[in-house]
Amino acid sequence: MMTLPCTFTPGFHRENEIAKIKYNVLGSTGLQVSNLSLGTGGFSYFYGEYSLEECKLVVEEALKSGINYIDTGPWYGHGVSEQILGKCLKNIPRSAYYIATKVGRYEADPKRMFDFSAEKTRKSVENSLKVLGVDYIDIMQVHDVEFAPSLDIVLNETLPTLQEFVKEGKIRYIGVTGYPNSVLKEVIEKSNKINCVLSYTRLTMIDQSLKQFIPFYKSKNVGIINASVHGMGLLTNSGPPAWHPAPESLKIICANAAKFCKENDVELGRLAVYFALQEEGPSTILCGTNTRDLLRKNVDVVKNGLNAKELKIYGEVRERFFNNLQNTHWEGIELEKFRSESFVFSTNQK
Question: NADP-dependent oxidoreductase domain location, by residue (predicted)?
Answer without folding.
Answer: 36-314
